[in-house]
Design goal:
Blueprint lengths: L1 E3 L18 E3 L11 H4 L19 E2 L13 E7 L11 E3 L2 E6 L3 E6 L5 E6 L9 H6 L7 E3 L2 E5 L4 E6 L5 E6 L5 E2 L5 E2 L9 E3 L2 E5 L11 E5 L6 E6 L29 E3 L4 E5 L25 E6 L5 E6 L15 E5 L2 E7 L4 E6 L5 E6 L9 E2 L5 E2 L12 E3 L13 E3 L4 E8 L2 E5 L4 E2 L2 E2 L3 E5 L3 E8 L4 E8 L8 E4 L3 E5 L4 E6 L5 E6 L9 E5 L2 E8 L7 H5 L7 E6 L1
Parallel strand pairs: 3-38
Antiparallel strand pairs: 1-22, 2-8, 4-44, 5-6, 6-7, 7-8, 9-10, 10-11, 11-12, 13-14, 15-16, 16-17, 17-18, 19-20, 20-21, 21-22, 23-24, 24-25, 25-26, 27-28, 29-32, 30-31, 31-36, 32-35, 33-34, 36-37, 38-39, 39-40, 40-41, 42-43, 43-44
């Protein structure tokens, strides 16, 4: 582990906005008001106002009408077909009787939470020159929307913030936040940004992360905008640039092209006023160009966690969890803010096969707990959360080496959950290896290659629960499938909910892992479930559709038709 405290420069930029709309309405909705800062500060209960449920990222609901004693009574309340092809990775949000979520293909839906009838939909049209290998490889994925006052906030693949009137779907605002990746007339990919993550709304601001960089080399930023006007209030560098502490941990000018994308939205703590983000891997994957001739430079900012003061955009600290990142072990999963033995703590399960514990105020990493049995890349972590006994990376052009876990993790981008009643963290993980090789870095169509290759080995989906105080595994649900659960939900009713890559939606006892309810949906689940209350009844919702990660279908971006939203109640 390497941890620094620093300050980021920030700027004030006013961008233009468009007011045209392209929403269609079907059906109606109940009357009610919008969402203010006080509403957003509440724990998830009757309403689910954030993609992770609440600011702390715990994906914990205070609802208990459905509990470990009666979950076996769950039945299908209704279903909704998205009619789309591709990975559905968004957890819906819920307000005033309506579920809001994006689907594959840059489309936002509003669905009546009682009946499952579509209220409105909005389709964002990407520019004709948008694209190139990188965004097309990802296939128009969106991980969620946010709500603030009278608007649904959507961050598009081409880096635009779009605000939609929450009752009607009318477009109120469109702002180009960053230049987007596109192909010029010569067929060369022009570097820019795309985004796949959900916006995060904190008091008075909407936070937007840039996902491009892993393939292309554009350094990532965290941008804070006024959600009503689209004005950029501040921007924070993910990788420390000239004048920032940690810039000298990058060889030559590699900090300018080091990537470190933000793949999934972070979390927020009102007491510290810090927002916390897990950062992506450095570019290129082949570390020889960025770690120096002795391969000993840490590349601060990538594969770690950053804390930003939302009042001014200052980066308060960056904590490195995989120094130099030879393995594509980015720490993208959202850090969970929790009280652990009286200490405000960030809980960070990640690709390395370890859970890391960080002090939420200082960034000090004070503990690492192994949760994957088969680990070869390092012998462990020391008391300062720095890896020990790390194996040497492969030679460029030489034979690949067996690396466990694979670049898919461990815990990848799919969010874990934390239940303060059980004191357990619930993780959607994968126990598998890959053969990892370094290739020569070449330039293709104006973009440098990643300089690495991987060959996935067979592995298992692993859903597991760890006591955060003792660091001991309490239960596990292991399946011989090449995939992940899409994310976790846990509640005050002592249940944990997840969708398996084998097609099942499961509700288990949060304390023991005992299976209480299984629905064989026969479709892969890449989104985390959520829960809400309406008319005194609790519902559990799971957006489904996608492919198992790691196989040929993922590499070719093919997926089954028929994304579905399943909703259950007693």
């Amino acid at each position: 582990m390497f941890q620094i405290k620093t300050c980021a420069r920030f700027s004030l930029v006013l961008l233009g906005m468009g007011l045209a709309g392209c929403a269609t309405q079907q059906g109606g909705m109940s009357s009610g008001g919008g969402v203010n800062d006080a509403d957003l500060a509440k724990n998830a209960g009757a309403e689910w106002l954030h993609s992770h449920g609440s600011w702390d990222g715990a994906r914990y609901s205070t609802l208990d009408e459905v509990n470990s004693r009666n979950a076996s009574e769950l039945k299908m309340a209704w279903t909704f077909s998205t009619g789309t092809t591709g990975n559905q990775q968004a957890t819906p949000i819920f307000h005033d009787g309506i579920l809001y979520f994006p689907i594959h293909g840059q489309t936002v839906l509003a669905v009546d939470a009682r009946s499952g009838k579509e209220v409105w939909r909005y389709k964002h049209e990407l520019p004709e020159n948008y694209g190139g290998f990188v965004p097309n490889f990802l296939g128009q994925i969106s991980k969620g929307v946010a709500i603030y006052k009278d608007r649904i906030l959507f961050y598009t693949n081409d880096s635009k913030l779009v605000a939609l009137q929450y009752k009607t779907g009318e477009k109120l605002l469109e702002v180009q936040v960053r230049p987007y990746v596109h192909v010029n007339e010569a067929g060369e990919e022009q570097l820019g940004y795309y985004s796949t993550l959900s916006p995060l709304v904190v008091p008075g601001l909407v936070l937007l992360g840039q996902s491009h960089g892993e393939q292309g080399g554009s350094p990532a930023y965290l941008d804070a905008l006024n959600p009503m006007t689209g004005e950029i209030v501040w921007s924070a560098n993910v990788i420390p640039q000239e004048g920032e502490i940690g810039h000298d941990t990058w060889y030559g000018d590699s900090a300018e092209t080091g990537g470190a994308p933000l793949w999934i939205n972070g979390t927020y703590d009102a007491e510290t006023n810090f927002t916390y983000w897990g950062t992506g891997n450095a570019y290129p994957w082949n570390a020889t160009e960025r770690r120096g001739p002795n391969m000993d430079m840490d590349n601060i900012g990538a594969a770690g966690i950053m804390a930003v003061d939302v009042s001014n955009g200052n980066v308060e600290w960056r904590t490195q969890l995989v120094p130099g990142d030879n393995w594509d072990f980015d720490t993208m999963a959202p850090p969970i803010v929790a009280d652990v033995d009286g200490r405000k703590t960030l809980i960070q399960p990640n690709k390395t096969g370890y859970i890391h514990y960080l002090d939420a105020r200082s960034g000090e990493c004070f503990r690492s707990v192994q949760f994957i049995e088969n680990i070869t890349w390092a012998e462990g972590y020391d008391e300062n959360c720095r890896p020990v006994g790390e194996m040497a990376p492969p030679e460029v052009g030489g034979d690949p080496i067996l690396k466990c876990p694979s670049l898919m993790g461990g815990v990848n981008l799919y969010p874990s959950a934390y239940n303060p009643q059980t004191g357990m963290v619930y993780m959607p993980a994968r126990d598998m290896c890959d053969k990892w090789g370094y290739d020569e870095i070449v330039e293709l169509a104006g973009v440098k290659s990643m300089g690495a290759s991987t060959e996935m080995q067979p592995g298992n989906e692993l859903n597991t629960a760890f006591n955060v105080s003792s660091g001991v595994e309490v239960w596990r649900d292991e399946a011989a499938d090449d995939g992940y659960a899409g994310g976790m939900l846990t509640t005050a009713g002592n249940i944990t909910v997840y969708g398996s890559s084998n097609g099942d939606i499961k509700v288990v006892d949060a304390t023991t892992g005992e299976n209480l309810f299984t629905f064989p949906a026969n479709i892969t689940h890449k989104a985390g479930p959520m829960t809400y209350e309406l008319d005194g009844k609790q519902y559990i919702a799971q957006l489904s559709g996608g492919i198992q990660l790691g196989g040929a279908a993922f590499l070719l971006n093919t997926a089954p038709d028929g994304g579905m939203l399943y909703v259950f109640s007693r």
